[in-house]
């Protein structure tokens, strides 16, 4: 099938290239406008109690969102001075009422929570017009210049401001990363490929993958909310997989040309071998990312949608546009060669002896002492993963922004100089039917809440009919485990007779998010693990290899997650990486890393095993197959890892802490997987397992012989000899 497809792409190459150019232009014009349609929220569970509390409050009490917080400070005057009051109130009264629908100040409420401890500062809370985040952001832009009060220092913060700052920083980080990474990648690709013509092909695929995914995302924004952070995943996966697939397919094409095949036959053979591998890899990575779609949080679903878009476009482009370009270039793929400058010999034919290659010698060195290598690597990986056993999960607050950002400064000032958590209280939306009985039941409920350990105050701050808002104050970090435990204790307080109490607020939203993650994470693991097992079996006809691959991926992820605890939870390297540690890890980020890294690890696994399986089918010698397979894929895998590390590394210097976390986690996981795991642990374990690597029960062997994703001209796979592997360690 893949060989026939390759020949079709050769014959239709100009049509394919023309269509790709048209799609590229459309994506550049229409798809890149996706940034204006993205959101920054989406971390809460829509079905959680906190979300239901917010919906009921808005339906019965009206929307009273703390969209913007305006901090007014005077070094000399206090809020008790008439001039201070006049400056603030007159400024706020002049704001257009169709933009600011509600204003809360110290002078309109008398609430001491709105005054600093030294009384030299106060803040006003504004509710902005708009049904969604984008509209409220536009409203803030309209009035921001009008918020300055004469004679007072004015600073603007609040959720809408924080969201806008995060969105702008993400866009700036992406522009910076792409500006720096593309030239660096081009130079490295030229070094890896040895020619400018060959090096340009993966970059062309990457551009097509990114713009195609942006176009798909913009279309999705008309159907659902899509997080602004999904563009980071699109960029990483679009470039990363395009480089992986380009390296693998261009490398194979050059081998076939060196073998003496004509252009059409070389493309057909490349598609039958490397093209098949790319298809298996793409589907495997896509299934891993599809596991994110089961979560109710819009953030994770957006990451899944963005990642799927990038993977599918990169895979389709690699199977259509790339063979068409190779057909056009033919031997000119070596054009603008820099091999003489690099003192590198021309590409050798596959028949050339590989026994003197670095990876071949390394594989045999490992397989002479497999127990030593396997034990050593496993010990290192398990020790690296150990810190994750004490992980503490938390949420997102303004501290994800760089130090000095005005919206973050406002949040830190209010938290430090005012009543603690005045802007992020726990809120209970209480339904208490009946007039006299309802009021008494509500009062008993408030009194009971006040007695809960950890509550510093509770009062009714709004009422409409049978529904009331109870604002609950507490002392502690809103995203800490202690505060989440407080939410659980408040939820345990009985509601008024015949009524209901829904507990919400930022801390409650985080508690609901963690509950949803804990409930659905096993299902995600089952989806990506089960699908990965099936796909690898269909590709290689073994039930042992898929299990080994899953275990290897878990080890790579474990080392990465352990490093996250040390770096981001404990705060080590916070100065070097320029972020503020909150003592926790945001819970959705490891899940995202799990999906992306699991897919990339499977990508490398498929590349390596395809060459090993090809050699094993030819010789039946497991030891020689591992050595030859590693020799022919080791340089490609490490080159691909190096290039994707450049992309990921630039995102690890993002100004947004959790984007930085994703970059660092992926950087560590890919580095560990492409070096320690694939280069050392895989050869050691395959030597220990011997021919059992290729074992499958007889019914599954027959199924694979009929339905397996083998190369079209391969003979049916040999039945593995499960006797102990021979003691020799070199190929004859």
In short:
The protein is built from 24 helices and 10 strands. With 732 residues, it is of the alpha+beta class.
Structure write-up:
With 732 residues, the protein is an alpha+beta fold. The protein contains 24 helices and ten strands. The strands form three sheets. A four-stranded antiparallel β-sheet has the order 2-3-1-4. Strand 7 (455-464) and strand 8 (467-474) form a beta hairpin. The longest helix has 35 residues, at 159-193. The radius of gyration is 30 Å and the shape is elongated. The chain starts with a helix and ends in a 25-residue tail after the last helix.
Provide the low-confidence segments as ranges. Answer: 348-353, 712-732
Instruction: Assess the beta-strand content as a share of residues.
Output: 5-15%
Distance between the termini: 34 Å
Helix content: 55-70%
Radius of gyration: 30 Å
Strands, total number: 10
**Continuous helix count:** 24
Shape: elongated
Sheet of most strands: 4 strands, antiparallel
Task: Calculate the mean pLDDT score and round it.
Answer: 85
Strand order of the largest sheet: 2-3-1-4
User: What class, by secondary structure content?
Assistant: alpha+beta
Topology:
Elements: H1 2-11, H2 13-29, H3 49-61, E1 68-73, H4 82-93, E2 100-104, H5 106-109, E3 121-128, H6 133-143, E4 153-157, H7 159-193, H8 196-221, H9 230-259, H10 263-290, H11 298-329, H12 339-342, H13 358-368, H14 370-385, E5 393-394, H15 406-417, E6 426-431, H16 436-450, E7 455-464, E8 467-474, H17 481-491, E9 500-504, H18 506-540, H19 544-569, H20 574-577, E10 585-586, H21 588-619, H22 622-651, H23 657-689, H24 698-707
Helix pairs in contact: 1-10, 1-11, 2-8, 2-11, 6-7, 7-8, 7-9, 7-22, 8-9, 8-11, 9-10, 9-11, 9-21, 9-22, 10-11, 10-18, 10-21, 11-21, 13-22, 13-23, 14-19, 14-23, 17-18, 18-19, 18-21, 19-21, 19-23, 21-22, 21-23, 22-23
